[in-house]
Amino acid sequence: MEKLSGANFVLLKSQMEDILILKDQCLLIEGTTKKPSSMKNEEWNKLDRKAIATIRQYLAKNVYFNVSKEKTLKDYGRSSMIYMRRTQHQTKCS
């Protein structure tokens, strides 16, 4: 799979969601931002870290640099969306 950059965000976002689903990490992308009461904190944190590790494998260097400081998938998603919007805007204005 090609690396996620500003230019290919729409396509690769859906492909990344598919990868997370196949790796049983989809709970974090299905709108669940709170830990289910039936899940231990350690399990939730481990799932979150695994999803981040999976996503990092598919980020272009410029994207990785801009989101690497984030510690949770929720923050990762927020930062990457901000970065992608800024990148797409700059591309359109060039």
Q: What are the salient characteristics of this protein?
A:
94 residues; mainly alpha; 4 helices; 0% strand; globular
Structural write-up:
The chain is an all-alpha fold. It has one domain. Helix content is 62%, strand content 0%. The chain has helices at 9-22, 41-56, 61-67, 73-93.
Proportion of strand residues: under 5%
Residues in helix, %: 55-70%
Tell me the Rg in angstroms: 14 Å
Low-confidence spans: none
Give the termini distance in whole angstroms: 27 Å
What is the total tally of β strands? 0
> How many structural domains?
1
Give average pLDDT, whole number. Answer: 76
**H-E string:** HHHH
Which helices and strands appear, and what pairs or packs with what?
Layout: H1 9-22, H2 41-56, H3 61-67, H4 73-93
The gist of it:
62% of the residues lie in helices and 0% in strands.
